[in-house]
Amino acid sequence: MPNPLKHHRLWLLAWALGTLLGGALVTRAELGKLQDAFDTDARIVHRLLSQQAVQHDAILQTLALLHNPDADDNPEQRLPSVYPQILSVWRSDAHNHWDDPALQRAQDDSLRLGHPALADVDTSRQRYRLELAGSGTSYALTIDVRTMVPWNDWPMDPATSPVQVTLALGEDAIVLQAGHTKPEATGGWNFFAQKTLAAPSQPFVVISLQHLGWAAVPWAGLAAASTGWTLLLLAARALLAQSQNRRRAEERLRMGQLTRLNTMGELAAGMAHELNQPLAAVLASTQAAHRMLADEPVEDMAAVRQALQQTVQQARRAADVVGRLRRTVERSNMASEAQVLNPMELTRKAVYLLEPELQRSQITPQLKWVGEPFDIHGDAVALEQILHNLLSNAVHALEQVPVGRRALEVQLQRASGQGQLTVRDSGPGIPANVLPHVFAPFFTTREDGLGLGLSLCETLAMGMGGSLTASSPASGGATFCLSLPLAPHPTPSP
């Protein structure tokens, strides 16, 4: 026999594992979307800043190519009006050296590398200087990093974006976008991307960082996944239970059929065995008497009489066998097993057993006492069988009328020195030509009925010293009245 607690634990374990797996998949999918968006934005940021850095190299190289030593108006000083990120332009002639050591080191580096070189970085003022050493004249630019960023093409809103974007050079770092990420944040997930600018002269590393806390978890998606998995498990469990119930019902039906067949076989074998001998004796005695009566004249009338007497005895023996079998079926010992019963309790028990059928048919039975409560003398099992049969028949009858007209009442009262249990329904009633036969064995109006239910109920009622009657009022419906002997002392009112 399966352990129900273990069965429930297995379902609970399946629910927990499925919920965890579903939650992990949903979270992973959501984090994957956020990661893709982060990576895309990081690539765009790197490309935009690289384009700006390459532009700075092009500006310095253009100045070197277009330099006119005879010009006195210093046209390079007009560059800040064209490029807002250029704060100032510095120039050094061929025979002059920079007074600024940083610019002098950058000039030496530029001559050695053959391209612009970074002079220094001022992180507090968010600017840096870039120099290109030429054969005749050297130029240097002071670049404002904040102005250098093309905010119109920036893929994120710098005021609300959670992504932190930094330009780093060694230990120097300039924050372009603060974001909402704290470097010391723990728990959750971190997205990170870094890449050096495409201009060798400005080897800044573009660092993008985003921290996702528990708020980034798709709780609605997790709830939906958990709910879906729960509903799926409930549906699977319901289908499994339905299948098990169907198999159990089929097995009970099969066993019931086998039991009935075996019982009928045993009954037939017993009757054949018990009746074989007296019937054989009847046949033998009758044949002997026939032979003696055929002789003319009859010589031994005493033998004839004896043969006929044996025939009568064996016929009575066969009748006794049939009577004994009938008494076994009719429970002749119910009177000796009678006990004091509360009819309302037994009625409530019968209603409880039929509760699924009553709910399915939308029937609400009414149980009521009329007058003082009472106890009865009878057999509890027999009375339960009668009530169950009468209520089942009432439910079957009420299913043939509209829901709004379905009414079922069980009334208990004293009448004529007996306790009466009256079952009334508002069904289609019993036709006048059928009413006299309702308690006849094997009489039924149902296609699948055997016609033994009401016959058995009447037999059980009579076995308890009572009676069962049926009527069909002109107003409609059917009424069955069960009368049983009263017990001497009634129970107190419930």
Summarize the structure.
The protein has 10 helices and 15 strands. The chain has 494 residues and is α+β, with helices and mostly antiparallel strands.
Can you walk me through this structure?
The protein is an alpha+beta fold and 494 residues long. The protein contains 10 helices and 15 strands. A hairpin with a 6-residue loop joins β14 and β15 (478-485). The two termini are 40 Å apart.
Order of helices and strands: HHEHEEEHEEEEHHEHHEEHEEHEE
In this structure, how is the largest beta sheet organized?
A: 5 strands, mixed
Overall mean confidence score, pLDDT? 80
- How far the N terminus sits from the C terminus, by CA atoms, comes to 40 Å
Weakly predicted, low-confidence segments: none
The proportion of residues forming helix, as a percent range, comes to 40-55%
Count of discrete domains = 3
How big is the Rg? 53 Å
Structural class: alpha+beta
How many β strands by DSSP? Answer: 15
Question: Any idea what the shape is?
Answer: rod-shaped
Instruction: Tally the helices.
Output: 10
Name the descriptors:
494 residues; 19% strand; four-stranded antiparallel beta sheet; Heat Shock Protein 90
Can you lay out the helices and strands and say which pair or pack?
Elements lengths: L3 H62 L13 H4 L3 E7 L8 H13 L3 E6 L4 E6 L5 E7 H4 L15 E6 L2 E6 L11 E8 L8 E8 L6 H76 L6 H29 L9 E3 L1 H11 L1 H6 L5 E5 L5 E3 L1 H19 L9 E8 L2 E8 L27 H11 L3 E5 L6 E8 L9
Parallel strand pairs: 10-12
Antiparallel strand pairs: 1-4, 2-3, 3-4, 5-6, 5-8, 7-8, 9-11, 12-13, 13-15, 14-15
Helix pairs in contact: 1-5, 5-6, 7-9, 9-10
